[in-house]
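Example protein was shown:

_____
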Amino acid sequence: MQDMKKHGERSAARFTGPAAYSAIAVLPFLASVNGAAAAEDPAVAELTQPKSSIEIGAGDVSSSSYKFGEYNGLAHKGGFVLGNLDLSGGGSYDSDSVTRWNLHANDVGLQASDARFDFREQGRFKIDLGFDDWRHNLSDTYQSPYQGLGSTDLTLPPGWQKPIVPQVSATALNYRSLSTIAGRGSAVNPSGQVVAPTASQLATLDGIVAADTGAFHPFNLHTQRKAGEVGFQVNLSPALLASGSFRHEKRDGFQAIGAPTSAVQENSVVLPNVIDTITDQINLGLEYTHKKFFLQAGYYGSIFKNNVTAMSWQDPNNPTLTPSISSAPSNRFNQVNLVGGINFYPGTKLVADLSYGRSEQNEAFLKDASLPLGLPETSADALVVTKLASIKLTTRVTPKLGLFARYKYDDRDNQTPIATFVFYDVNLAKGAASSAFNTALGLPAGTLSSNVNIMADRPQSKKVNEFDLGGDYSLGRQKLSGGYNWQKIERRCDGTWINCSSAPESIERTFHGEWHAPLLNDLDARMSYGYASRRVHYDSNAWLALVPMANVIPGSPVVGATTSVYGYLQQTGLTGFGPLLGYPSVPLTGNAAIFSPNNNIVPQSLYGSRDNVSEIPGMRRFNLADRNRNRLRLSLDWQATDRLSFTNNVEFDHNDYLHSVYGLQKSTNWSVGLDGTYALSDRLSASAFYTHEDQRSRIVGDGFGSNTNVAFIGRAGNTVVDGSCYTTVQARNNNGKLDPCLNWSSDTHDRADTLGLTLAWNGLWAHRLDLSGDIVFSRARTDIGVNGASYANNPFALAGAPVLPAGTPAVFLIPAADLPPVVTRTFEVRVSGRYALSQSSDLRLMYEYARTKVEDFAYAGQQLGTGTEQLPTLEQAPNYVVQVVALYYRYRF
């Protein structure tokens, strides 16, 4: 039981009936064997003859909750049996035997259990055995209409009807039809009139609701890990130690995964992805130790096997289509390492380590008949070679001054071959227009259409060089320490036709220092500060590595191009975003008209991709952006009296992404914690704590559009724009790419407060009864403020409707609204009482009350009728009130 474990002693372990009865049966025998120890001094016996114990008992959970039982195995309502083992044996401390053994079993059978057994002869060898059984409960409110949940092939139920809202569109997928309220709203017809759905349309909606909503059924999402491990250590000689271990882990279950059903319309589903994997890990080591040096050699191997190849499902938009998504490929990793160190003289030591690893993945690609040119290779034949080396020198120059220097080299060399893949987006049919690269690929005209993807993989490598210098100096009772770190990261892709990394090089310099001093006999203070500056050589055109056709001059049907996309960007100094201009006053000609038409972004068809992979100038990914970081840490420990003590901690982090026009611009995190303990007497003590955590971040973006010369919406007279940076439709459209009204920002503020109180009262009722309890309350809130706006056409500005009255807006600029706050409140009460029946046995009664309330708009968006193109899952916020009571008996011997 996860929460009860916090009280120091292990609690719940579920045993089957026979196991519990067997444990009870051996108690008298074990007591007789160890009876001689009772006459010894209890304090001495505790050190020289560790106690063994067996715990058995029973408990009850008041109500089912996957969230409460997420990790502790107590997800379901009802009774359960408890049990733990802690057994020790072997030769006694005053015998000639060096044999020892231990067996620990915690929460066995509770799907949150582990067991360990070790047997050793001190100074000779040691054998370890281990077993873990751990279940992670994810959701018990997920629902889906698919049949075959739990398998890799999902089908829609017989009679499934395509969800549409016929009064809006007779063909377009629209999941709002699944709601008898949202799907029955009035709509504007092509003549500009608001009309209610007709009787025929209502009948269609009733048929969709009857056929589809009844098909939704629950399916629990969870994962289960079971692992067994065996290890050994053997002293081959006083200076030579051999060790090794083998771990076998099986993981199965179901996790939610989002998958596109149509990448063009952005239709998507959330599926229970089948998990069925096996991971085997092996460690071998050999260590030689001398008075002045040591040397360790080791090997690590990992083999990952995924028994699930892919998931497939019928498209709710068109059940005749069956898209699929591949699962993680099987792979293997092998690494050898060598570590050594030498003490030159007292206070000076040199340690160095080397490692070499190979990660390989050669799983066969999924066969897909829709690939127009087939697969370029049968598998990725992926290979990543890692090389690591580091060396560290530490020296004590004087008793007061210590220094160290370290160098680290880390090279991740991705040697995966590069191949070009030609494909159409999921469930996308070949278009009518011909690709501009058929001739370049040696294909007849019309073989590939303009909506094809011609993309290459991007095997990224990374090399890190890092230097550290630092030291510490004692000033009486005070101590100062500090250092400097320099890190250079180089990123590359071997074999790509152009640089593939947005940050081919970054350098970060860090300065840090710490002051530690006992200010008074009862007050200890510590303060540290660090400053880091990262500068990045950013390449906004690195996306070109994905699209090899960007280095090919487009042919028919493109007319007049004299260079490739890459050549045009090189000649003009532009990025794929094109010039920072609006609609041209004079029509563009030549390559400018082809590659940046109307001063817009480079057309996707000119580099053979359905994805717009260019970047807005000034956009920086936060992990690859220039950044200044400040970190401050403060702590105070105050022993006010012999009975009263306080601990206070303050942490502050500030990150400034100073050159990011778009993307994450800044983030600030700070927290404060206060912990106090007061011993009212030798038997009664109380403690309380409070923590506050505060995180803020700001992200900026641009919802830019395209420059056009369109002057009206629907009819020629509909030209007014309301609330915009522009007053007319033409002015707005002429500046669609640079419209400042489309800039947006998001400010996220996370706060969490936790308050706790603990009380312990020991030695009651003739020193037989110990009581303890604690109360914990926490509240977390996330506020997401959004600034910006987006355009919406007046629904009455239609080509078939009358011209709007004079002055009536044809387009509205609608301001963004803040998202609803996300709030989580938890309240927990835990009470425990232990009564000693004798010196070797006791009873423990434990009670826990747990309540969680969640307000999260994300769950509201998963209900029927709340979305148009995403299949709902009907999941609910994990609110619960659960009570747990447990009583068990422990025998020590």
About this structure: The first strand starts at residue 53 and ends at 61. The chain has eight helices and 38 strands. The radius of gyration is 34 Å.
